[in-house]
Amino acid sequence: MKLRLATAFAASVGSTAVHAHSFAQPYQLPMPYWMYIYGAMAALALSFVVLAFFLRETPNAQQPRHLLLGQLKMPWLQRLFQTAMFASIVLAIVAGLIGNQDSYRNINMTYFWIVFALGGCYLSALVGGWYDAVNPWKVSVEVLSKRWPVFGSGYIAYPKRLAYWPALTQYMVFIIIELFGDTRPFSLSVILLAYTALTLLGSWLFGSRQWFYYADLFSVLFRVIGHMAPLQKNAEQRWVLQWPFAGLIGQRATHPSLLIFILFMLSSTAFDGLKETQLWFNLFWKDPWNILTPLLGEHPIYAYPYLRPWFIAYEVFWLLLSPLLYLGLFLGFLWLGKTLSRSDLPLTELTARFSYSLLPIALVYHITHYYTLLLNQGVKIRGLISDPFGWGWNIFGNAITGRLPIIPDMGVVWDSQVWLILIGHVASVWLAHVEALRCFNSRRQATLSQFPMLALMIVFTGFGLWILAQPLKG
Fold first, then answer.
1. Which end of the chain is more exposed for a tag (fewer CB within 10 A), N or C?
2. Rg of the chain on CA atoms, in Å
């Protein structure tokens, strides 16, 4: 009986892993996945050689040229988008409180997790600064400030030592809720109300300008991603078109909390993929080192009912530790580069300068892991708008047809994932090399400093593709 229970449990967990990234059935790769990994590594190394020989940049070089598109002076259009964003958040909260509690019939789950949180990241990678212009919570503070002028000005100065720690803390809580919270429409609405209360309190206490710049999760997240956007506003508030990722040149992490925020963008996505692999499952439930079995008096898989909460705590622990592990790797390889180049720059300065070069990797990891959710679940927002509360309405006549998902070909998904991973890592190598040319006195010194960074990028490439291949191997 125990054997049957264990087999059924293992099968259920395994099926979750296979479905985790929208692969509903086994898919045979055109070639062994290790060939993809080695090929991507070789391409990355080749790109480094090309950059080392042909990229010429002086330490004081300006950012790449951009195409000036002009200034869009239509305040009514911005107000229209602000109103739409505010109304959509209110609708999501109300729908969760009074609507059907089926997560697939209530609009708030699909809207917040897929359209807002996921789609907002990808929109920020295309159009920088969009969220700052239409932030519904910022709009709420501005409206309250017109009624009570002291509301948004703040009662006390924002402490410098807080820096980005509040935003990082919210980010960690957000990911924990996403991965382990098992939210439903009502609980999501309660969470959004709590987030609203925190935002209003922070804006009232420290001032809206400081709060939304340093302490608000989505403001910081979308702004950091927005630096990579090809379309964004410059200092004169005019729209410019530039090369993707070019906006990261010259950016630096002004505080350790911002560096860890960036690293958590990378590590949390990698962890979400890792925890669905067979390796991660076996490390705990199969007890390969025979640690839990003597303590429990039986194999851990038979103790699942009361061991499950401890397993979740175990996963949360490693999730919270993950950015520190990436930080150790990052600092270690930077130190090797500093040693090879014999640079006089302190490690803290190098860390601040090269931190933004990791953002393209974080972005492509995020896209490759989650973009199929936009196709499978995100497009269902068309039908949910016709029946937002799940009460059987059909306002626009597409309550049923509007929920048909887009099911991509798995071969196309895998190929796009490989290309995205490669492009992101090549972009990071390019950014790091440009920054090295700005930091060091000679091309030789800059190139030497980048050999350890190249090794780090190769490690990230191999690890990222290995994680993506696991559901396909399933």
1. N
2. 24
Total residue length of the chain: 474
Estimate to the nearest angstrom the gap between the alpha carbon of 442 and the chain centroid.
Answer: 35
How many whole angstroms separate alpha carbon 47 and alpha carbon 53?
10
Q: How many CB atoms lie within 10 A of CB 409?
A: 9
- Ranked by mean pLDDT, the top range of 16-20, 137-141, 149-153 is 137-141
pLDDT digits (tens, 9 = 90+) for 105-140: 999 999 999 999 999 999 999 999 899 999 999 999
User: In 3D, which of 243, 267, 285 has the Cα closest to residue 369?
Assistant: 267
DSSP 113: I
Is there a contact between 364 and 16 (Cβ–Cβ < 8 Å)? no
The two tokens of residue 34 are 């290790």
Cβ contacts of 96 within 8 Å, gap of 6 or more: 106, 108, 109, 185, 186, 187, 188, 189, 190, 192
pLDDT tens per residue, range 24-36: 445 566 667 777 7
Residues 138, 78: Cα–Cα separation, whole Å? 13
Structure tokens at 327: 């930080």
User: What tokens does 260 get?
Assistant: 């860890």
Q: How far apart are CA 165 and CA 260, in angstroms?
A: 9
Residues 63 and 246 sit within 8 Å (Cβ to Cβ):
yes
269-272: long-range contacts, CB 8 A cutoff, minimum separation 24: 269/362, 269/365, 269/366, 269/369, 269/370, 270/322, 270/365, 270/463, 270/464, 270/467, 271/318, 271/319, 271/322, 272/175, 272/179, 272/369
d(CA 355, CA 266): 12
At 38, which amino acid appears?
Y
Q: Do the beta carbons of residue 113 and residue 169 sit within 8 Å?
A: no
What is the Cα–Cα distance from 182 to 334, expressed in whole angstroms?
Answer: 39
Q: For residue 426, how many other CB atoms are within 10 A of its CB? A: 22
Cα–Cα distance for residue pair 447/443, rounded to 1 Å: 6
Strand, helix or coil for residue 70: strand
Is residue 159 classed as helix, strand or coil in its secondary structure?
coil
SS3 content of the chain, % helix, strand, coil (to 5): 70, 0, 25
Of 470, 382, 461, give the one whose Cα is nearest residue 40: 461
Looking up tokens 């924990």 gives 176
- Asked if residue 381 lies in contact with residue 373, where contact means CB atoms within 8 angstroms, the answer is no
The Cα–Cα gap between 232 and 125 comes to 10
3-class SS letters over 409-441: CHHHHHHHHHHHHHHHHHHHHHHHHHHHHHHCC
Using left for φ > 0, alpha for ψ between -120 and 50, and beta otherwise, residue 442 falls in beta
